Amino acid sequence: MLDHALRILKDVFGYDAFRGNQAAIIERVAGGGDALVLMPTGGGKSLCYQVPALMREGLAVVVSPLIALMDDQVATLEELGVAAVALNSTLSIDEQREIAERIRRGQIKMLYLAPERLVQPRMLNFLQGLEIALFAIDEAHCVSQWGHDFRPEYLQLGQLAELFPQVPRIALTATADKRTREEIVQRLHLDKAERFLSSFDRPNIFYRIQPKDQPRKQLLGFLAARKGDAGIVYCLSRKKVEEVAEFLSGQGFPALAYHAGLPNELRAYHQKRFLNEEGLIMVATIAFGMGIDKPNVRFVCHLDLPKSLEAYYQETGRAGRDGLPAEAWMAYGLQDVIFLKQMLANSEGDERHKRIEQHKLDAMLALCEETRCRRQALLAYFDEVLAEPCGHCDNCSDGVETWDATEPARQALSAIYRSGQRYGVGHLVDILLGRDNEKIRAAGHQHLSVFGVGKALSEGEWRTLFRQLVARGLADVDLEGFGGLRLHESCRPLLRGEVSLHLRREPKPAQAARASSSSASQLVRVHERETWEALRSLRRKLAEEHGVPPYVIFPDATLLEMLRRQPGSLREMAEVSGVGARKLERYGRAFLEVLNGGADETPVPVADLRHELVTLARAGMTPVQIAGQLGCSERNVYSLLAEAIGNQQLTLEQALDLPETLLGEIQDAFLEGEGELPAVSEIAGQFAGQVDEAVLHCVRAALQTEFEG
Ligand code: ADP
Ligand code: ZN
Known about the structure:
Blueprint: H1 2-13, H2 22-30, E1 35-38, H3 45-55, E2 59-63, H4 67-79, E3 84-87, H5 93-104, E4 110-113, H6 115-118, H7 121-128, E5 132-137, H8 160-163, E6 169-173, H9 178-187, E7 194-197, E8 205-211, H10 215-224, E9 230-234, H11 238-250, E10 255-258, H12 264-276, E11 281-284, E12 297-302, H13 309-316, E13 326-332, H14 334-346, H15 351-368, H16 374-381, H17 394-398, E14 402-404, H18 406-418, H19 425-433, H20 438-443, H21 459-471, E15 475-477, E16 485-487, H22 492-495, E17 502-504, H23 509-513, H24 529-546, H25 550-553, H26 556-565, H27 570-574, H28 581-595, H29 606-618, H30 623-630, H31 634-646, H32 652-655, H33 660-671, H34 680-684, H35 693-708
Parallel strand pairs: 1-6, 1-7, 2-4, 2-5, 3-4, 5-6, 8-13, 9-11, 9-12, 10-11, 12-13
Antiparallel strand pairs: 14-17, 15-16
Helix pairs in contact: 1-3, 2-3, 14-15, 18-19, 19-21, 24-28, 30-31, 31-35, 33-35
This protein binds adenosine-5'-diphosphate and zinc ion.
Residues 15, 18-19, 22, 39, 41-47, 295, 321-323, 555, 577 line the site of adenosine-5'-diphosphate (ADP).
């Protein structure tokens, strides 16, 4: 069974090996069992149902919540030569009728549907009259009422278990928590499903969190080293989204805005451009999210703090879906903390709910002030243990200095207390630095015992300290007033001198601005730039011709491998990961020409020709296609194929594409008499007009090897 799966993986998708749990999952589902698959974004969930779908007889039905997602998947499958369609409300009645007809005739292998459509009695009826290979339920966490993606229609999918007891079902999600998992099992009636849990680590993402100083300048600094890469910049408010998008455009970075307040058409247009064009930056609120399947998002920036680690993980997770290096970058400051706390205080909901939200925010803040490996901390929050520091986050790669902040922290807390627990950070810093100004005098604060005790630290260092005190919950923000600070009970042991406090020291600005060694733009070395751009521009041209996003033609990883391996022939091209039979046939030659600097039409030596022919046939090309690729006559191809069959380099199935009944008739004709196989000329008359003699040669060669060995 695994052999069969691997062959499909190579022939159709062009990949050499399964990743992680894929093989086990595919084996389970292809064998008719149910499965629950938890895998992070970019883990390769699609193959988990697409491969079994191709291994099993009948129609595979895929439930997906978003039209955009479906269209993308269908386009990708079509490019791979798999007959897939999406049934959705944008189709006319006639179009829908035609699709139904094609399905009935068995011409469609994969059907994508929204859940509400699948559970319509007519649709269920229709499907019950067909052979169904499997049901795949994508984004299965949408069944959870507690999550933010809840879709009531998902609740009805449970009935598939009863209506189609013989059909395997596979539910997939990138949402990891236990509660969601149990809900999926229960509501989708997946009690018999085998569970496949993957690590939720995203090893290709580099995490960096910086203190916010001059956010726009910091952002430009980050982007400067990443020109030409696609990315997302998240902001909290719609207004800020528009301002930042405009600012970036003005600075020469192509940026688009996306938020729920934009007219629908404009939003859709921006999303489409982001998917179809390369190197665009989407400045967005969190409304821009699920359904962003673009695999080559190279960075996700946060100019505002997300309100939980769940949100942070999900948003940063949109980077690097293709497995290539990607970055998560965030700037955060005290203002973020104050703002989120205010939002929380003013939000609806009961006390219990608010307490939960508060805990989530605290966990997010803890990650920001984390002095150990960020990845370890992040995964630990999701109950996953990473044994060693990752070596691939800012803390690991730059190192974190901590310092004993016990005394200054006491001074700061004391300044809060003695000034009456109602002043903001600016004023408190003025007190500590002993600044003689109007506001200080008006309040008489020049007489406080803490006035001027903090001259050993700079203004910036004090601000950082206050932020850290708030982030650690030692001080609180007065949310009704004007953001004044108050003491929190938990600071008492510190004030009494019972505990000490160690805080992370802010990195020097120069260090912070440095591009990490994993910077995505460094994927392509300088001397490769020109070829890289040429490959990308060919891809863009083909994508436009086919009306699909560029990554549907080939993902970046495949172009990059072409760049590295420099295939010189179609045979070598077929070995590039991501180049399956159909794509080899459609695009192989065009990309070869770019790589080898224009077409060279020097004739191929016969030995090479043979070798290449075998490769192409194994990759699933038909003789006609091979003839086109190799630039020789069909007759030649057939005779070389017959030879390859004779040498047992190819099986008959690999070489020919004959209807089974016809093949049976030909074989019978050869086997009719006793003793020696008849020569081709003896039976050719029977098949005149049906098949070429060359085909008969191939069949005969295959029979002969069977007899001999
Ligand atoms: P998910 O749905 O889990 O986010 P996808 O199914 O979109 O992930 O896969 C992410 C990327 O990884 C895609 O470009 C896909 O083609 C690629 N991929 C998946 N499995 C493999 C594999 N076994 N070998 C090489 N590439 C793979
Ligand atoms: Zn780390």
